[in-house]
Design brief:
Blueprint: E1 12-18, H1 23-29, H2 38-47, E2 53-60, E3 68-72, E4 75-80, H3 87-98, E5 102-106, H4 113-120, E6 126-129, H5 134-137, H6 147-151, H7 155-160, H8 164-183, E7 187-190, H9 193-202, E8 207-210, H10 218-221, E9 233-237, H11 246-259, E10 264-268, H12 283-294, E11 301-305, H13 309-318, E12 321-324, H14 333-341, E13 345-348, E14 364-366, H15 371-383, H16 385-402, H17 405-421
Parallel strand pairs: 1-2, 1-5, 2-4, 5-6, 6-7, 7-8, 9-10, 9-12, 10-11, 12-13, 13-14
Antiparallel strand pairs: 3-4
Length: 422
């Protein structure tokens, strides 16, 4: 279906600021494909059907010797590196050359956000699409990790100076970028009470727009079926990142194993055993391996590696439950995609998650950093047929409304239109 928004004689030009190379850009240049930002790619595909809007994309690529420009699949794509001395000059030239009516920045915390805001210098025509809300994450950055994991190093981390302590320093820097970016624009798009309150705390005068996201196509086309899934199997994503809280799920899994000996955890993301005893190993991964050994779970956990869209969808269809244990989240797309399929979700009660899940209605929530409650909620999905059926049904129905492709595309176009008129 072609979505058309008429703006008189005007043809709207919108420049998107993105912190990474989208998959279609990676394929064009033969770069390794980055399986992230599915919500951006999905919205782009939907907007491309509209003849009254021209999208340009400025993305960060620090491997570049000089800035690049190519038209890829009808989209003007500008690559820029912030490692170059000419970065600000290059960014200003890109903006002047494209001459957008509106600048749309995906993530206030990204390295390109504040420099782009300054270069464009039109706060009334600049929108930030909220992503992580890093300022709140910093208050509980380490979770319940022991001190030796918080401040310790693997040998490789010592050389690279990128253990958790130094990563926190990077996040603190990004949090300052996030704050300055939000202070210097007039418009914010968000999806949760959490990101709304966060943005308004920083800039009380900002215009906040509700803008739900579009998920990847496979999750609209498939449906989870309990009778076809692997019973007592748990799916978890991005387990190599400490902020996702896999350590708490491992502890919970140790408890679940006593009740359900066949319980099995599948972890999407980097394999923490792949780099054991190499320079790529990390202190957090060593801690995870220690927990797995302590609870004798080696045969109950499989690390799936990085999964593309189709493989992630397949993994969800095969799972009995999807679990999110994050220290903080705004609107995790993995939860949204699981809900679209009807796969029951158990999540920590953090950040914007309560805007996505109503406890015992379309998912289950548990108190953050309490693994014994996590194991209890997972067990309810395993054994309570009525609860599992109710959650699956409601999750699917609610997610289809929240992530409606046509409505969300029209909503974004209308936000652009309102800003132009103002």
């Amino acid at each position: 279906m072609t979505i058309t928004l008429y703006l008189g004689e005007l043809r709207m030009k919108v420049l998107w600021i993105v912190s990474f190379k989208l998959p279609f850009i990676c394929k064009y240049y033969n770069y390794p494909v980055v399986y992230t930002g599915g919500w951006i790619s999905s919205m782009l595909e939907s907007l491309k059907k509209n003849s009254n809007i021209e999208i340009g994309i400025c993305y960060l690529n620090n491997s570049l010797i000089k800035s690049t420009y190519d038209v890829i699949e009808g989209i003007a794509c500008f690559g820029v590196s912030n490692k170059k001395k000419t970065f600000n000059k290059d960014l200003k030239k890109i903006i002047n050359d494209f001459n957008p009516d509106i600048m749309h920045i995906w993530g206030a915390e990204v390295d390109l956000s504040y420099p782009a805001i300054r270069a464009f210098n039109k706060p009334n025509r600049t929108i930030i699409h909220m992503q992580g809300c890093l300022g709140f994450l910093l208050s509980n950055f380490y979770g319940n990790l022991p001190k030796y994991v918080r401040y310790g190093f693997s040998f490789g981390e010592l050389i690279r100076r990128n253990n958790l302590f130094f990563i926190k320093k990077i996040y603190e820097k990004k949090s300052k970028i996030e704050n300055e970016s939000i202070k210097n624009v007039n418009h914010i798009i968000g999806r949760t009470h959490f990101d709304r309150n966060f943005a308004l705390t920083i800039n009380p005068k900002i215009n906040y727009y509700l803008g739900n996201e579009i998920m990847r196509n496979s999750f609209y086309l498939n449906e989870w079926d309990y009778n076809k899934c692997n019973k007592y199997s748990i799916l978890f994503s991005q387990g190599s990142k400490h902020i996702k809280g896999l350590n708490n799920l491992i502890v919970a899994l140790g408890d679940l194993k006593y009740r359900f000996p066949n319980v099995h955890l599948n972890v999407a993301g980097e394999d923490i055993y792949k780099y054991k005893n190499t320079l790529q190993d990390k202190i957090y991964w060593k801690y995870l391996r220690k927990l797995i050994s302590r609870y004798r779970l080696k045969d109950n956990i499989t690390f799936l590696g990085t999964l593309d869209e189709s493989k992630m969808c397949e993994a969800m269809l095969n799972a009995n439950v999807f679990v999110s244990c994050s220290l903080n989240e705004n609107s995790p797309n993995a939860i949204c995609e699981a809900k679209l399929l009807g796969l029951p979700v158990v999540s920590s009660y953090v950040g914007g998650v309560p805007s996505l899940i109503t406890h015992e209605n379309d998912g289950l929530l548990y108190p953050f950093n309490e693994p014994y409650m996590l194991s209890y909620e997972i067990s309810r999905i395993f054994v309570d047929d009525d609860l599992r059926t109710l959650i699956s049904k409601n999750a699917k129905e609610n997610a289809k409304k929240t992530h409606n492709v046509i409505e969300n595309t029209l909503n974004l176009l209308n936000i652009y239109n309102q800003i132009l008129k103002s």
